[in-house]
Amino acid sequence: MSDIYQKIATSPVGKRLLTGLGLPTPTILERQRKASADFVSGRVLLGAAPGAALLDDILHSMAKAPDAWLCCQAHASTAAMITQTVAARDLRLTAVNTGPADSTLFKALVFDATGIQNTTDLKELHRFFSPVARKTTRSGRILVLGRPACECDNVSRAAAMRALEGFTRSLAKETGKKGTTVQLLYVSHTATADQLESPLRFCLSPRSAYISAQVMTVGAGIGDLPALDWHQPLADTTALVTGAAQGIGAAIATIMARDGARVLCLDRPQAAKQLEALAQTLGGIAVTADITAADAPSIICDALEKAHGSLDAVIHNAGITRDRTLAKMSGDWWNQVIDVNLSSAERMDAVLLERQLLKRNGRIVCVSSMSGIAGNFGQTNYATSKAGVIGYVQAMAPALKEKGITINAVAPGFIETKMTAAMPLVPRALGRRMNSLCQGGLPEDVAETIGFFASPASTGLTGNLVRVCGQSLLGA
User: Which three-class secondary structure string do you get for the chain?
Assistant: First the structure.
């Protein structure tokens, strides 16, 4: 549904009026429009704490962004270290003056915080970011990289690494009005440059337009890391998307097909006509089944085996709502929501794994919700099911590691769908503004995140939860 307020706010007259009234003026976000687009284009300012360990790994990926100009602060204490690392990779580097009088803007700010050894060293964050925090372009990107606290060898360093979360979440709230997003990657000592590349590309690209203040952990690779065409990251893969007939599910199927995947589109029999049309458009296959039926996993696996033999990714997107306060909710409504949103995914994965239809280096991605994090009035059943999805992902991650399979979750916030379009005017308007980007997200924002987790290159990511909510002010 069209956001009339945003259209007014981004017009020259409307922007002046709303700014004068102290009202938010949400930026029109830059989103990925084609798979072949470079992941970052423009000036990228690099910074690092003394002794940082990931510069070479970062530049391993930046070398593949032909339209990016790497910059470093001429006055930074680590400028020499950055210059040497850049020179070793034969990349172009521009020294810039980031003083108050300088008008240079940056598409991305990237800071390697792994050199921070104790809480006193947190001053390096201020040293790098204070002069440039306002110098990102519209829809800019800010990325901080640190080490997981559990890998730190002393209490002070562990506290400093955990402090990065408060820093990035606060900075995201300061920069969100420009459409600029901030992410934090905790990179394990066991992760390689190749395993860092997928999350680094995602965080710096338009694919992460509606994701901000998120924390991901990159670990040692699970499964093989294949050679990849980044313009078609899902080429030669097969993916199953549940609840694919419309809304977010249709967007997931579309984005995955755009990125090269063969898609099996699954939905209930009542949506067969819509499902067939989508599958035909995408060159995929439509499968209808009631996922709550006892024989549904076997029916779905039989169709999969007949069509493709095996599967590279399964996306558990199917979900329903049956909203009512708990005191007025029937047992049937409670059971329906839990079964569709949570239990059916468990049953389907069990059969897929038992029949060995999900390949090694396979991907499972589950769709949770902000309701599962913050709760919601009249949605005890829905919030319970979506919180259960998060618990399922976290519990399954270690068990699937031995099979070379990753599992992650996304939690959408206010996304512009038919469901939110049917909301009353005032709750809908508030839902759009109650995040740092001051607008609702699009189904494609959820789909881009799922495509990222489903990529064969995302082998270092498992057990993660990413909120696709523009940094919602609820449940942060």
Answer: CCCHHHHHHCCHHHHHHHHHCCCCCCCCCCCCCCCCCCCCCEEEEEEECCCCCCHHHHHHHHCCCCCEEEEEECCCCCHHHHHHHHHHCCCCEEEECCCCCCCCCEEEEEEECCCCCCHHHHHHHHHHHCCCCCCEEEEEEEEEEECCHHHCCCHHHHHHHHHHHHHHHHHHHHHHHHCCEEEEEEECCCCCHHHHHHHHHHHHCHHHCCCCCEEEEECCCCCCCCCCCCCCCCCCCEEEEECCCCHHHHHHHHHHHHCCCEEEEEECHHHHHHHHHHHHHHCCEEEECCCCCCCHHHHHHHHHHHHCCCEEEEEECCCCCCCCCHHHCCHHHHHHHHHHHHHHHHHHHHHHHHCCCEEEEEEEEEECCCHHHHCCCCCHHHHHHHHHHHHHHHHHHHHHHCCCCEEEEEEECCECCHHHHCCCHHHHHHHHHCECCCCCECHHHHHHHHHHHHCCCCCCCCCCEEEECCCECCCC
Specify the pTM: 0.93
Whether 5 is catalytic is no
Catalytic residue among 5, 186, 210, 382: 382
pLDDT tens over the chain, length 476 residues: 567 666 666 676 666 665 665 666 678 899 988 766 678 888 999 999 999 999 999 998 988 887 778 887 655 567 778 888 888 887 777 777 777 778 889 999 999 999 999 999 999 999 999 999 999 999 999 999 999 999 999 999 999 999 999 999 999 999 999 999 999 999 999 999 999 999 999 999 999 999 999 999 999 987 667 778 888 999 999 999 999 999 999 999 999 999 999 999 999 999 999 999 999 999 999 999 999 999 999 999 999 999 889 999 999 999 999 999 999 999 999 999 999 999 999 999 999 999 999 999 999 999 999 999 999 999 999 999 999 999 999 999 999 998 999 999 999 999 987 776 666 666 777 777 889 999 999 999 999 999 999 999 999 999 999 999 999 987 65
